[in-house]
Design a protein that fits this description.
Number of helices: 5
Largest sheet: 2 strands, antiparallel
Number of strands: 2
Shape: globular
Structural class: mainly alpha
Strand order of the largest sheet: 1-2
Length: about 170
């Protein structure tokens, strides 16, 4: 599981939003920069404007986004497998953030994931398992297996690091 850079900054109306300083989560064109050590500081371009876009992370919204991805792509095929997987991986990043926050709020004595995230992942996996598959070779199978291993599999020692390197696709 990747730990995201979380920064709390107060805003008006006594809310405390969480700033995720990982712009590649909303701008996929920056993904290659993130993978090669990209600094999340605002771009040096003289015309750059840093915009913060609110994103609600709750069980309902993440599952709704997954339903939208499934509706958009339809059946998994060799042709759409890479794009489908990429869109789902973006949602898994949201699950990771959701999990980090809930884990920090409750600080469970056992395991490494929040109860809230585990329940979310169970429903997320169920939706992935319902995707019709034509000739896709790995998606959604490998994603389902990795999510189950990380969040649901109770036989594995929950404090052991993942061996697949953290990649979801």
């Amino acid at each position: 599981m990747e730990h995201h850079n979380l920064d709390a900054h107060p805003i008006p109306k006594d809310s405390n939003p969480l700033f995720i300083n990982e712009p590649w989560l909303i701008d996929p064109s920056l993904q290659w920069r993130q993978e090669t050590g990209y600094d999340p500081a605002p771009l040096d371009d003289p015309d750059n404007i840093r915009v913060y876009v609110p994103l609600d992370l709750c069980k309902e919204s993440i599952l709704r986004r997954l339903s939208e991805v499934i509706s958009h792509h339809g059946a998994a095929s060799e042709e759409n497998e890479a794009d489908y997987s990429y869109d789902v991986v973006m949602l898994i990043s949201q699950i990771e953030i959701y999990d980090q926050v809930w884990f920090a709020r409750h600080m469970p004595k056992e395991g490494k994931h929040s109860v809230e995230a585990i329940e979310l992942v169970k429903e997320f996996v169920q939706k992935l398992e319902e995707i019709e598959v034509y000739d896709a070779e790995t998606f959604p199978y490998s994603t389902i297996d990795k999510l189950k291993l990380e969040f649901i599999d109770t036989v594995r020692d929950q404090n052991e690091p993942m061996e697949y390197g953290g990649d979801w696709y």
